[in-house]
Design brief:
Elements (H helix, E strand, L loop, with lengths): L17 H17 L1 E4 L5 H18 L1 E7 L20 E8 L8 H6 L2 H10 L6 E2 L7 E6 L5 E4 L6 E7 L3 E2 L2 E3 L11 H8 L7 E3 L6 E4 L6 E3 L2 E2 L4 E6 L1 E2 L8 H8 L4
Length: about 260
């Protein structure tokens, strides 16, 4: 892992040392304050860029074009909410996706399966253990956004999302988010509607650099990736971890997200 990770700056391989505990504490502080933490340059930026270049032919020839219309909840309707409520505004999402079985042997695959990575993430989340996903397609994904493509507003189903930027676009592709718009007890539909109409002053933009690990609490914090501009794609890896082992998608979910069940 020393070949492509900055383990001097981020000692993920040294659990229970003071440096490791300090990094965990810093990450937890950022999570509490911002709903996310970033490890800039965890992956060597040159390796990140080379990995994106190596994946380019796969994206052109073998990726699944994931294109769908949806609302912020990825749901057709919500109990007690009229279908014409502005919180249910619909919009489009589009990207090209590669699955875990297409990414074997890449730096992201090696990092994903490296036990100290899950141990560190679990500590930042105050969890006893985290496990990689058993699903052969969904465990690890790489997504590419060409000009005009974007990931539109949504809440995550999982408690947190772990990503690493491999290539930044020429323009656009910013990570846009609004921290803690809702709670477990208050869906704040009026606040969601205000956000979607562009009237929420607490929306923030974040521009990441290649090689940056981003860990984000997205269950109650809506977020999107702005439309990419220019010929250079935005390429990002998405890692899936769960508290219980053996998590799998259904065939229906795999077909919806990846166009195939196996």
């Amino acid at each position: 892992m020393f070949e492509f990770l900055d383990l001097k700056r981020y000692p993920l391989d040294q659990p229970n040392t003071q440096a490791w505990h300090d990094l965990v504490a810093q990450s937890k502080t950022a999570l509490a304050r911002d709903g996310m933490f970033n490890l800039e340059g965890l992956l060597d930026p040159n390796i990140a860029e080379q990995t994106a270049a190596d994946l380019a032919p796969l994206f052109r020839e073998q990726s699944f074009v994931h294109q769908r219309e949806h609302n912020i909840y990825f749901s057709q309707s919500l109990p007690g909410l009229p279908d014409d409520h502005p919180a249910l505004m619909r919009f489009n999402t589009s990207n090209n996706t590669l699955c875990a079985d297409q990414l074997r042997g890449t730096p992201m695959d090696l990092l994903y399966r490296w036990p100290p990575f899950a141990t560190f993430l679990a500590a930042t989340m105050d969890k006893t253990h985290l496990h990689i996903m058993a699903d052969p397609l969904a465990a690890l994904n790489a997504m590419s956004y060409h000009e005009g493509q974007l990931l539109n507003w949504h809440f995550d189903r999982s408690e947190f999302t772990t990503t690493m930027l491999l290539q930044a676009p020429e323009q656009g592709g910013e990570f846009v988010y609004r921290t803690d718009l809702r709670t477990e007890n208050d869906p704040n539909y009026d606040g969601v509607a205000k956000l979607l109409k562009g009237e929420d002053p607490k929306v923030r933009n974040l521009t990441l650099s290649p090689g940056t690990l981003n860990v984000f609490r997205g269950k109650n914090t809506p977020h999107k990736v702005a439309a990419v501009k220019g010929e250079r794609c935005r390429v990002i890896a998405v890692f899936s971890f769960f508290e219980k082992p053996g998590v799998m998608f259904s065939d229906e979910e795999r077909i919806g997200f990846y166009g195939r069940a196996a």
